Structures are given as C-alpha cells and as structure tokens.
Amino acid sequence: MAKVRIFVAGHKGMVGSALVRQLAQDPNNDVITADRTELDLTSQQVVQRFFAEQSIDQVYLAAAKVGGIHANNTYPADFIYENLMIEANIIHAAHKNDVQKLLFLGSSCIYPKLAEQPMREDALLTATLEPTNEPYAIAKIAGIKLCESYNRQYGRDYRSVMPTNLYGENDNFHPENSHVIPALIRRFHEAKEANAPVVKAWGTGMPMREFLYVDDMAAASIFVMNLDDLTYQKQTQPMLSHINVGSGVDCTIKALTETVAKVVGYQGQIEWDTSKPDGAPRKLMDVSRLERLGWTATIGLEQGLTKSYAWFLENQTGFRH
User: Fold this and answer.
1) Contact 108, 273 (CB under 8 A)
2) 8 Å CB contact between 84 and 91
3) Scanning 110, 136, 227, 265, which has the fewest C-beta atoms within 10 Å of its C-beta?
4) What stretches in the chain show pLDDT beneath 70?
5) Measured distance CA(17)–CA(212) in Å, rounded
6) In the UniProt entry, which residues are flagged as the active site (predicted)?
7) pLDDT, tens digit (0-9, with 9 covering 90-100), for 246-283
8) Is 232 among the residues known to form the active site?
9) What are 283's strand-pairing partners?
10) How far apart are CA 270 and CA 259, in angstroms?
11) Selection from 101, 2, 10 nearest residue 47 by Cα
12) What span, in angstroms and rounded, lies between the C-alpha atoms of 86 and 255?
C-alpha cells in the first residue's frame, strides 16, 4: 500500500511540530517538511515548484506569522502581507497540483470583538474585529474564504479549523512577546529561583479564558482532516466551512495564575495590580459542532500545564532572553 504523502507547512511552530509528532506515529504516513532556508512560503514561484516536485496527497497549513498584541500593533503590514502570501501560495499550489485534501489552521481572533459568548462559527463577519490584531484576523478570514472558494469552484476538499488559545511544547517563552501561559510559567519559575516573596499580576484576575493543550489541537486537526465527506458536510455548509476547536471549558485568569504557581511550585504571594486593564470579560469558543462530529479534548488544564513546565525546564537554556 502506497504511503500518504503529507506536507506540514510550519512544522517548526507549536502546532506544526505537534502535528508532525502525531502524524509520524502512523507508518502509512510519509510526512514532508521544509524549513525557511529550503522553502520561502511567501514566494509563489518557489511554492509552486515545491508542490510540482513533491507528489503531495494532503496539506496541513499551520504556517503563519504570529505574535502578541505588541507585535501586531507594531508590524501590521508584515502580519497581513506575509499571512496572505503564505496561505494564497499554498492553497493555490495545492489546487494546481491536484491535491484534493487540505486543512487550514486559523485563529479565534477571526470573530468580532464583541461576539456573543460562547463564540459560534456563524458569528464570522457579523461585526467589527478587535482593532489591535485586525490585519492578522483579516488574513486568517481570507484563508477560510480561499478554502471555501476552491471548494465551490473546483470541488476541492479544503477544510478549516479555528483553535482557541493554545499552549504546550514548543511554545514561545519570550519575556515580552509570549502569551499568558508561557509568560506566567516563566515568571513564576524565575520568582521561585530568586525566592521572590511576591509576583505581580495584571488586572483583577476576573476575565474568563479558554485554553487547549497543543497535542489536543493536533489530534483534533487530524480528526477533522480524516472525517469522511458526508459526516463533515452534515455539520458544515458551503458558506460555513470552518470548525471551532477548543476545550469547551474556561476559567478565570486568577484561577489560571494560581494553577500555574502550584504547578511550578512557587510558594510566595500573588498581588493583583487592578490599575492594569483586564481585556475582554470572556472569550470562549462554542465547540458543539466538533463534539457532534465525535471529538472532545482529553488533556485538562493542570495536566497540560505540568507537561508545559516540564518542557520549559528541559529547554530553558534555549530562551534566556
């Protein structure tokens, strides 16, 4: 039996590396990767040549330029340009080289700033986006619409999944540019090492957020990619093709912070600086469609945080700055 040749774009990122780890466990899969020195995803000509040479059966499009609020605010042109180029080049090259199956990974920031909670798939394009990451969000919406359009015009089977906040192995632990979980892990670890009596946290701790361990995200992505057409189409329509992926459970930032402190083993006090902004009161994905299709998350928050901290300890020499 011929192996399935699967190209994972963005294989060095957090989600891409988790996809490679899981796909490689199946002996029927031949996982193809290429780093930036070999393959410039922003070049249409280079991507087209790569697809023409590789005889690819499936594509997981996990490549993206990503960053936190500061990066999105500072480099909006880079974020919209690079993400539009990457997804347009890969999706078009996949079509031109007769790749029938593709999975595009988006982001929960595609939904309106004031979307009703929990956020359902049909909230897309119903109101204004969060201004700070609007260029990135618009690029991700364009990716969804590219998949829908190639499906409608050419009968392709290009699907999209929208993850909630992800964390885990290969996360970004940079002190300024990281998201909340890696930032908290690093802060509490350094406070423990220094015997610091107090760690300060922003805001009131009352906002609610949802988190999903990256191995669960990879498992959900492979699950959605491999659903048979009829099962998938029963839960999606031509103009509502994307599927939310999350744990379906949220917690307060205060509870998250206390759990991270517990996992790290920090014994000091946590002080809340209520002069700092809280952000949106709640951000939760409606994952009922994915559950109806037959998938639910398996890794709870404390278990996932424990795995993340273990990975941080093993790899921290690589991100001192």
Assistant:
1) no
2) no
3) 265
4) 235-240, 318-321
5) 16
6) 136 (proton donor/acceptor)
7) 999 999 999 999 999 999 999 999 999 999 888 888 99
8) no
9) 209
10) 12
11) 10
12) 37
Given this model, what pLDDT does residue 239 score?
Answer: 56
Would the annotation count 13 as a binding residue?
Answer: yes
Each residue's pLDDT tens digit, 147-160: 999 999 999 999 99
State whether the Cα torsion 35-38-41-42 is positive or negative: positive
Check whether 35 is labelled as a binding-site residue: no
Which residues, 6+ apart, have CB-to-CB distance to 53 below 8 Å? none
Asked if 55 contacts 5 with a C-beta cutoff of 8 angstroms, the reply is yes
Catalytic residue among 136, 150, 167, 309: 136
Q: Is 295 annotated as a binding residue?
A: no
* Whole-number pLDDT of residue 319: 61
Whether residue 160 contacts residue 101, with contact meaning beta carbons closer than 8 Å, is answered with no
Residue 297 makes CB contacts below 8 A (sequence gap 6+) with 212, 213, 216, 220, 246, 247, 248
Q: What is the torsion angle, in degrees rounded to the nearest 10, for the CA atoms of residue 221, residue 73, residue 278 and residue 216?
A: 10
In 3D, which of 92, 90, 98, 78 has the Cα closest to residue 39? 90
Is residue 272 annotated as involved in ligand binding?
no
* Residue 252 amino acid letter: T
In this structure, the chain runs to a length of 321
**C-alpha span between 205 and 57 (Å, rounded):** 46
Phi, psi of 252 (to 5 degrees): -75, 155
Please report, in angstroms and rounded to a whole number, the separation of the first and last CA atoms in the chain. Answer: 48
User: Residue with structure tokens 């709870």?
Assistant: 300
> Beta strands of 28-73 (E only): which ranges?
29-32, 58-61
What single-letter DSSP state applies at residue 197? S
Treating both helix axes as pointing N-terminal to C-terminal, what angle do 180-193 and 301-315 enclose, rounded to 10 degrees?
A: 60
Q: Which domains does the chain possess?
A: 4-319 (3.40.50.720)
Distance CA 130, CA 280 (A): 10
Which pLDDT does position 307 carry in this prediction? 98
Tokens of 291: 């559950």
Given this model, what pLDDT does residue 68 score?
Answer: 74
